[in-house]
Every structure is written in structure tokens, then in C-alpha cells.
Amino acid sequence: MKNITTWTTLAASLLLLTAGFLLPTKASNTSLKLAQQVNCKSPQTTLDQNVCSSQEFQAADKKLNQVYQQLQPKLNSKQKQRLTVAQRSWLKFRDESCDYEAGYFEGGSVAPSIYGYCRARVTKERIKDFERYLEQVSL
What we know:
The chain is mainly α. Helix content is 81%, strand content 0%. Helix 4 (77-103) runs antiparallel to helix 5 (111-138).
């Protein structure tokens, strides 16, 4: 019985020790923050490109949602419904089109940044569409 208790205590201690190594530390949080503060005008590494493409896409997606929200109240119910259907189709198109584009680099470290930059570029084009729609409904 004493051996079982000793082994259980040893196993629990090892588990706690291992968990301590797996928990994020202040140092790892600092390095993560530094990795996210890259110069996106001139990304130097694949990690930089991945961070920058993600940031660029997030900014474009935020702008797209803002313009979409501006457009919605200016439409009648039929046009709102059409826009919703079109937007769902467009989202699928954007993601599949960019998946195709990144597919040339499948398995490579650059594939995520290709996908991110593609989504940002295509989203910016969609913003122009929405801005044009806003002009049309304001006439």
C-alpha cells in the first residue's frame, strides 16, 4: 500500500511540475506581444507576414462590417434579403477563392500569409462594392 501511495504522490508531483512548464509565463506573453508588433510595411519573416496578413484582413473585415451596417437601414426589406443572400455567397466565394490561391503553397510556411493577404484584398474590393451601393441608395 505504501508503494502505491508513493507512486501516486510521485505521479501527481510530476504532473504538477509538467503543468507548470506548459502554462504561459510573463516572458512568453512578452515575446508574443513583441511578435505581434512587427513592421508590416516591411515584414522580415514568415511569422511577420502571417501576423501582418492577419492584421490587414481583420482591419478590412471590420471596415466591411461597418459599411454593411451603414447600408442595411437604407434598404427596403426585399433588398435587405437580397443583400444578405449575396453576402453569404460572397463570403463563401472569398474564402474558397483564397483557399485556391493559397493552395499553390499548401504545406509551406507562406500559405497562411497568402491566404490572409488574399482575404484582405478581396474584402477591400467588396468594401468598394458596398460604398458604391451606399452612393446609389443615397441618390
